[in-house]
Structure formats: C-alpha cells, structure tokens
Amino acid sequence: MELLYKSTRNSDTTVTASQAILKGLAEDGGLFVPTMIPKLDAGMDELAGMSYQETAYAVMKQYLTDFTEEELKSCIARAYDEKFDTEEIAPLKKEDGVYYLELFHGATIAFKDMALSILPHLMTTAAKKNHISNEIVILTATSGDTGKAALAGFADVPGTRIVVFYPKSGVSPIQEKQMVTQKGDNTFVVGIRGNFDDAQTGVKKIFGDKDLEKEMASAGFQFSSANSINIGRLVPQIVYYVYAYAKLYAAGDIKNGEEINVVVPTGNFGNILAAYYAKNMGVPIRKLICASNENRVLYDFLGTGTYDRNREFILTTSPSMDILISSNLERLLYRIAGEDDSKNRQMMEALVKDGRYEITEDMKEKLADFYGNYATEAETADEIAGLYRKTGYVLDTHTAVASRVYRKYAEETGDTAVTVIASTASPYKFTRSVMDAVDKKYDAMSDFELVDELNKISGVAVPRAIDEIRNAPVLHDTVVDAADMKDTVKKFLGI
Ligand SMILES: *Cc1c(COP(=O)(O)O)cnc(C)c1O
Fold it and tell me: Distance between CA 60 and CA 232 in Å, rounded?
C-alpha cells in the first residue's frame, strides 16, 4: 500500500515520499507528515536476528513506499558502510544500570550521521524518480552537528551542491574546525553573526522566496533541505529505536513486549519525534523522556502547555541543543491536535507573531507519553565526572544532559523499567567541555592535547574524524550578517 505525505498546515494535498524528501518543507510552510503511522510489519523475533541494514530496510520500506526494494537497499548499503567504525552501526553500552545507545560511530561522530549518511542517496534517487534535471542545492542552518554531517554526506555527490550556515560564536572549536576544513567543490560553509535561530530563520526565508525560486530554476537549480524537518531525516532515525529494542530482546535483557523508557537529549525535537513514531509503530516504549539543557523551552512546554520562546538565549556546553524554536514539535502538535491543520496553523502563526502559543487541555492530555526535564550546566558537568569516576565511561555534554534528566525521572517516579539513553555525540566532539568537567586541571591545554588526554583516561581510540582535522587547512572563511544570507547564496551559485 502506498503511504502518502501531507502538510501539517494543509491536510488536503498529498505528495509521495520521494516528493516530500525533495521538497523538504511544504509550499505552505508546513512539515510533511505521513497520512498514517504504519504498524511494524516485522515481528520482534524476526527483528532480533537482523543487522542494522536489514532493520533499516524493514522500517524504511514502510514509509518510503514509492522507492523500489532495489533502490532502498542500495541507499542503505551506501549509507551504513565502512564510514561507520563498527559493524553494529549503533551499539548499546550498559553503564551503571542504563543502556547508552551510541549513535556516534559515523563519519562526523555525532548522531546526525545516522540520517545524513543516507539522505543524499534518498534525495538523488528521489530526483531521478521524479525526472528532475535541476541541480539540487541543499541549504542548511546548523547549531553545529548537522552542518558537518550534511557536508560529509553531500560532498562530491553528483547533481548536488550544499550551503551550510552556522552561528559564528555558537559552535564548539572542533565543530567549527570540522566544517571549515570540508573538502568538495560543491560545498560552501558560512559563519553568521547571530545565533542558531537567526540562521534557521534566514534559511526558512530563503526557502519561502518565490522570486529567488524562479531565478534559481532558470539557472538550473532548485533548493532542498537537509535540516531535520526533512522526512528523509526523520524516517532513518526511527530505525535505531526499533534496532535497540530488538537487540535488548535478542540479548535476553528484556522480554518481548516489555516496556522500556527512551531518553533523548533534545533540541529541534527530531530525534525524540522518531522515538515517538517508533512507539506508535508498536515498539513498547513507556515514557519518552525529553531532556533539555538550560534552554528549557520544551520542559516548560511539557509542564504547562504553553510554548514561549520569549526568553534569553543561553549558550551552553551542549550547543546542539541551544534552540528556542524546536521545528519538529510542529509534527507532534499537529498529531495531538487531531490532525487539524487550521488549529496547527493558528499556533504556528502565533509563534511567529507573539513568540508563543498555548495548547488545549485536550491536547495536553495527549502529551502523557512524554516526560520533560532539564539539566543545568553544573549538573551536566557533574554527570560527566560522576559517571566517569564510577565506571570509566566518558559521556559527551549532550548525552550527559540526558543522563542527568533520566536520574531526575527515576528519582521522581521510582520507575525501574529498562532504559535506553540516546547517546548523541562522541565525547571527542566536545573535548574541552568534557575534560573540564572531569578535572579543571585540563583547562590550560590546547584542544588537541585534550584529545590525547581523553584517549588516556577513557581508553577509547581517537576517532578518524578528529585525526583528520588535526592538520587540515581551513577552506572556508566567509562570515556574513544574517541579513546577507540570500546574497551569499546567490554569489555561490553565480546567479
Ligand atoms: C542535533 C543534536 C541534538 C538534538 O537533536 P534534535 O533532533 O535536534 O532534538 C542532540 N545532541 C547532539 C549531539 C546533536 O547533534
């Protein structure tokens, strides 16, 4: 059966999966959602024996129904290959009674590789399928990790170009170095004077610019988005929740049907939304635990039913979660509003106009699947140090936020269900903050000295992604005001 996609702001028109992937955002500014969330058609006993790639096929085929088996399997094979440093792709590590699902074994050592290593293949396949001859221009705003993961995914992929905007003072030194050293003639990296929301708002404006769209088309280009609003990002992320459950079952750590909790360090709400989809597909998940840093807009929302972005933007040691507008939340809102597009549209308009909106009591009740909390900077550092001293395992700052929030949840509720924490980055990606949390004595060292120290204390090999940038030359040094983003893109495309 063909699964179609509709916009959260207009339920009437539908597109195929490949069209939704190509468009990224719907014409009306809404996000594409499947007209229904399918139930897993593979049984747990079957899934328990599957490799990551086989699980990916079993899940993704239910969403991307206009891809042939051959197309989808080829995309999967090209994505989840030796770019990952382990055959398991997403291994589970049990530490101090909790399972950390390590999603950082790909090319850029953060979880965004899980989706961005397959998205370029889904996109070029989708382009062929829809007889598109334009070159696809990927435009992305990043709070750090998306940028590099998208660059790595799209670099030198024929028929594509990629432009990445990042907040010049809002990413870690290693994140920045990873991006500005990116090779590939089709890549372009630009720093913005402003924060992530400025970059994201700028990108959305460019996407909505009809005149630019015409100019682009006559020059043989069309935009697409690699941001987490693209359904081609969301669907591959559902896979690892199914996989984690199946592996726990295969190892005898849970019984078939036993409920687990899932904890996700959250920014744009993409990763946790994928877990929500997994739950709706039938994976027995009790609570979806949404962990925020000091930018606790989601914690406040889940507690009060009011989303309010009118607050100070705080730069934290978990920069990929420094977000005040969680774009993917719109997909959840639409669903808990009973797929009412006009209700959703009103809330999104209020968000633009007033920076806030309120949901109804009815909708609030449907948030019962979620638990939200946050960790302060001090708590995050303490979590890294504490777990390291107890077990020798070193968390990155984002995962540490999740780990601390899980502790708060367990204390508050007494819930002892098996719990999986999405481990979203390697500690090597945020070495300075991680080592500072372990011991202040490291503060005086250079970034790469810290890498070697982290290797010593954790015993985890230095990832290729870090070794590669040690001596790599800076290839991108453009910095612009957020207001000049459009001109910057035009210049890059030569139009
Ligand atoms: C992007 C990112 C997050 C947040 O994920 P969302 O899907 O935006 O909620 C958390 N941790 C790391 C390391 C990330 O790169």
Answer: 10
Look up residue 337 and give its two tokens: 């509003």
Q: Taking the CA of residue 43 as centre, how many other CA atoms within 13 Å lie in the half-sphere pointing to its CB? A: 3
pLDDT tier at 337, thresholds 50, 70, 90: very high
Which residue in the block uniquely carries the two structure tokens 């070029």? Answer: 124
User: What is residue 25's predicted lDDT score, i.e. its pLDDT?
Assistant: 85
Rounded-to-integer distance, Cα 264 and Cα 244, Å = 14
Q: Where are the beta strands (DSSP E) in 118-209?
A: 135-141, 160-167, 187-193
- Is residue 217 exposed (0-12), middle (13-18) or buried (19+ Cβ within 10 Å)? exposed
**Per-residue pLDDT tens digits for 278-328:** 999 999 999 999 999 999 999 999 999 999 999 999 999 999 899 898 999
| Mean pLDDT within 154-167 | 93
Mean pLDDT of 419-446: 96
CB 110 within 8 A of CB 145: yes
Instruction: Give the residue, out of 145, 146, 299, with the most ligand 1 atoms within 8 A of its beta carbon, to mutate for a pocket test.
Output: 145
Q: Which CATH code for domain 92-110+232-458? A: 3.40.50.1100
CA-nearest residue for atom 1, ligand 1, is 320
Question: Quick one: pLDDT at residue 204?
Answer: 86
Which atom of ligand 1 is nearest the CA belonging to 429? 13
Give the binding-site residues of ligand 1, using a 6 Å CB cut-off.
110-112, 145, 228, 265-271, 320-321, 398, 424-425
- Helices 173-180 and 145-154 cross at an angle (nearest 10°) of 20
Expressed in angstroms and rounded, the spacing between residue 350 Cα and the centre of ligand 1 is 25
DSSP lists the bridge partners of residue 291 as 265, 373
Q: Active site includes 441?
A: no
Torsion-angle region of residue 392: left (phi > 0), alpha (psi -120 to 50) or beta? left
> Of 83, 112, 148, 247, which one is the catalytic site residue?
112
Q: How confident is the model at residue 225 (pLDDT cuts 50, 70, 90)?
A: confident
Q: What single DSSP character describes residue 473?
A: P
pTM of the model: 0.93
Condensed to tens digits (0 to 9), the pLDDT of residues 175-224 reads 899 999 999 999 999 999 999 889 989 998 998 899 999 999 999 999 98
Q: Given a cut of 80, is residue 462 above it in pLDDT?
A: yes
Question: Closest Cα to residue 115, out of 143, 149, 82?
Answer: 149
Ligand 1 atom with minimal separation from the 104 CA: 13
**Residue found by looking up tokens 């390697």 in the block:** 426
Q: Are 406 and 373 in contact (CB under 8 A)?
A: no
Q: Phi first, then psi: what are they for 460, rounded to 5°? A: -90, 130
Task: Find, among 323, 365, 338, 358, the residue nearest to 141 by Cα.
Answer: 323
